[in-house]
Amino acid sequence: DTEVTQTPKHLVMGMTNKKSLKCEQHMGHRAMYWYKQKAKKPPELMFVYSYEKLSINESVPSRFSPECPNSSLLNLHLHALQPEDSALYLCASSLVGQSNEKLFFGSGTQLSVL
Amino acid sequence: GESVGLHLPTLSVQEGDNSIINCAYSNSASDYFIWYKQESGKGPQFIIDIRSNMDKRQGQRVTVLLNKTVKHLSLQIAATQPGDSAVYFCAENYGSSNTGKLIFGQGTTLQVKP
Asked: What's the CA gap between B43 and A100, in Å, rounded?
């Protein structure tokens, strides 16, 4: 299994809602990542987890709250988002999180904030 | 084949021609580079990678060239096919050897004309 699975594929939420994005991989990878991608732009790194510990937070606003409950799962909890947070949210995984590893990406969750 | 000397957002080539997509990276300390292909509605898909101790690496129909002197990366696609139409991103790893921090370049849209 070489897949990273993200759910849901699409999500529409209001600015007062609380929602969660989910990501799962069964490749035995110990590093997992969240990226945000606006239309016609490159993916931008948000968070990196290595061995279930947060290792990088790219100064992401606190309305985005990541969680890594175990080595196969990664969540992104969303609360009080703004319309400008509408984007494609990509999850990725790699072996352990070192600098010479390729990342495997899921297909993303297309988020719209109304 | 058609090539671009500087990064251009769009490259249009005839089916069967060779394509060359260029990328300038920013961090002279980056030691690992990846090319990704992203089709509409999908996450980035790994194409080929190269470490900083190499200047060329070949895959199936693809070649990556690395020029560390001018911080330049290129992707060559031989005999371009309609299925190669996508956005291509180069990515460099900013992190130390213990921390993966993959940062993406701006991306080039490859259009293949039949």
From this structure: 20
